[in-house]
C-alpha cells in the first residue's frame, strides 16, 4: 500500500492526468451541476477548512491502511457495473457492521498503470473502483458531514 500511495502522490505532484478505466461522464446534467454547487457551501458551513483537507485526503488515499480494488472481466458489458455497485454496497455495509469505515472513490483508481504494476492485475480485468477501508478519524469534521437529501417524492415518481 505504501508504494502505491507514494507513486500516486508523485503523479499528483507532477499533475499527471487521471486515466481511470471507467471514464468520467463527458457532461453533467443541470441537476447534477446544481447539486455539486450546493454541496461545497454546505461542507464549508459544517466542516470549515476540512473541505480543503478533503482534496489532500483524496491524494493520500484517505490515509486508509488498505484499499479494496474491484475489477471486472473486460469481456463483460457495462451492465456489470450494476452488479459491482450492489456488491460494493454490501461490502461497505458489512465493513460498517464490523466497526470499519469505507469510502468509495474514483480517485483511488486514477492511475491504473501503478495499480496494475504493484498489484499484478492482469490485462483481462478492468479496474472499476477503489474502496478505502479503515477506522475513520472522528476528530476530522469531514468524516461527520452528512449531505442534504431530497425527499422520496422528489426522487421517485409513483404511477397509479
Give an overview of the whole structure.
The chain has 160 residues and is α+β, with helices and mostly antiparallel strands. It has one domain (2-143): NADH Oxidase, CATH 3.40.109.10. It has helices at residues 2-13, 30-47, 50-59, 80-97, 112-119, 152-155, and strands at residues 66-73, 101-105, 125-134. Strands 1-3-2 form a three-stranded antiparallel sheet, covered by helices on one side.
Short structural description:
With 160 residues, the protein is an alpha+beta fold. It is built from six helices and three strands; from the N terminus they run H-H-H-E-H-E-H-E-H.
Tell me the CATH topology. Answer: NADH Oxidase
Main structural class: alpha+beta
Overall pLDDT confidence? 89
**Helix fraction bin:** 40-55%
CATH C-level label:
Alpha Beta
Number of extended strands: 3
Order of helices and strands: HHHEHEHEH
Gyration radius from CA atoms, angstroms = 17 Å
How many independent structural domains? 1
| Total helical segments | 6
Identify the CATH homologous superfamily: NADH Oxidase
Low-confidence stretches: none
How much of the sequence is in beta strands? 5-15%
CATH architectural type: 3-Layer(aba) Sandwich
> How would you characterize the largest beta sheet?
3 strands, antiparallel
Q: Gap between N and C termini, in Å?
A: 53 Å
Shape: globular
